[in-house]
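We emphasize that the prediction below concerns an isolated chain of 103 residues; any contacts that depend on oligomerization or on bound cofactors are therefore not represented. The input was used exactly as deposited, without trimming of termini.
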Amino acid sequence: MTAQPEIAIEFDHVSYRLAEGRELLSDLSLAIYRGEIFMLLGRSGSGKTTTLKLINRLLEPSSGEVRAGIEAGAPLADIEASFVAFERLFAELRRPALLPEYG
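Result of the prediction step, given as a token string:
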């Protein structure tokens, strides 16, 4: 029997609204598996940065749930490694020269 891949990050019907009520993200559901290469691609204002800020808890969802593979009580090294991965993710997002037609 093959083991199921471990989910690293999961969005379960996540929405995010600004305080004034404008919706920036609507009903996003997705799973990113450990070791998987994932690209978040879209035009300016499409919710890429909001999605990444929800992953690393700079923002909290208005509805739905964001889950990460780090369980409470995980070793500090695991948590630090995850933050390094998120930092790389943000760095790649900010490199429009890689795919200028999507910038």
